[in-house]
Amino acid sequence: MKRTIFLVFTLMAFVGCKNDSKSTVGNIEDQDQLKVRELTGNFIYYDNAGVLQTESELFGVIEDENAKELIERATPLKNQPTDEVKVTLKVKVIKKQKHEEGWDNRVEIIDIISVSEVAEKNNNVIKIRAQE
């Protein structure tokens, strides 16, 4: 009888531990979200919103001190407020929570590596000018 009770409790302990492995998957996703990456792309800041466009993704830029520094460094390189600048940044990518509005992925700038003008031939923006 004692052996049977001991076996039942031991079996319950092992079955109960299965739920613990599911929570580690969530922790792994959180760790992936906090990885620091180096991204190169075009940055635009217009109407109090910053966007980083890489070859395959769009990111909203979180406004903090590093973002303000990037905006200050980018402003002299732009001819018009809607112009983009080419940047290389070290960032932390943060996925949007389900209840939040905005871009699916946002970046928090860790370090500004380079800021330069976009080559005119690569700037595919349609500009409308008033006829005189």
Cα end-to-end separation: 100 Å
Return the average pLDDT rounded to an integer: 79
Query: How many structurally independent domains?
Result: 2
Q: List unreliable stretches of 5+ residues.
A: 20-25
- Given helix and strand content, the structural type is alpha+beta
CATH superfamily of the largest domain: Nucleic acid-binding proteins
| Biggest beta sheet attributes | 5 strands, mixed, barrel
- Helix-strand sequence: HHEEEHEE
Tell me the CATH topology of the largest domain. Answer: OB fold (Dihydrolipoamide Acetyltransferase, E2P)
Q: Rg, please?
A: 24 Å
Global morphology? elongated
Number of strands: 5
- Give the DSSP E fraction (strand runs of 2 or more residues): 25-35%
What does this structure look like?
The chain is an alpha+beta fold and 132 residues long. The chain has 2 domains: 1-33; 36-120, Beta Barrel (OB fold (Dihydrolipoamide Acetyltransferase, E2P)), CATH 2.40.50. It is built from 3 helices and 5 strands. The protein has helices spanning 2-16, 18-33, 65-74; strands spanning 36-46, 49-53, 58-61, 85-95, 105-117. A 5-stranded mixed beta barrel has the order 1-2-3-5-4.
